[in-house]
Amino acid sequence: MPDKPTLYRKRLIPNECIRLDQDEVLLRRDNLLVTRWHTIRPKKDLDHGVSCFLLDKGWKISRFLTREDELICWYCDIIDWTLDPDTDTYIFTDLLADVLLYPSGSIRVVDLDEIADALEQKLLTQAQVCLCMRRLNALLQEIYAGTLLPSLEAYWKAGNGAAVK
Predict the structure, then answer these.
(1) What CA–CA distances, in Å, run from 103 to 54, 67, 75, 91?
(2) Does residue 165 lie within any of the structural domains?
(3) What is the pLDDT of residues 5-61, one digit of tens each?
(4) DSSP letter (8 states) at residue 44
(5) Which residue range forms the structural domain that includes residue 54?
(6) C-beta of residue 91 within 8 angstroms of C-beta of residue 10
(7) How far does Cα 29 stand from its chain's mean position?
(8) CATH code, domain with 36
(9) Quick check: is 138 in a domain?
(10) Radius of gyration over alpha carbons of the chain, in Å?
């Protein structure tokens, strides 16, 4: 088994599957993967970040940062994933629904129209849409309860080089 797992990001809209060669795996536990990365395609503000893949929940929570390490937002993807244990390869499939949490405290749920489009185009099954909605609901419950971000604080510090216990 390779020292470093192979990671892929699969998107449905647009249809693409990208190998995340440059992502650095900071931590891997049973249901958790933490990575540090730079943007694949240059953006105006977004330069790099840290992502926590909460595999048992089907969430990828990313901390989006500027070149100056200023927080832009926390970007929460609803995902599904597979792991091929023989090759230590993860494929993370974006189920389209996203939640953006801003430092000001505002929250935006986005791309729900893409779920409808994907269902109509048969890019997602009814079962996948149901899974996505349940995972989105669970994520929003943690956000509204104020428990999501504090539970991830140690992993954001790991993204800055601190040890994770």
Answers:
(1) 21, 17, 11, 30
(2) no
(3) 999 999 999 999 999 999 999 999 989 999 999 998 878 899 999 999 999 999 999
(4) S
(5) 6-159
(6) yes
(7) 16
(8) 2.40.380.10
(9) yes
(10) 16
